[in-house]
Amino acid sequence: MLNAGRGEVFAFDQLKMYGQELMWVFDVWENEPQLDFEVLERALIATPHIAGYSLQSKYRGIEMIYQAACQQKIISPQPIKKPFYPIKNISVASAKNWRDVLLTIFNPANATGEMKEKLVENANGFDALRKKYADRYEFGFVELENLSLPDSDKELLRRLGVECLTY
Question: Which of 36, 40, 49, 52 reaches 20 to 30 Å from 65, CA-CA?
Answer without folding.
Answer: 49
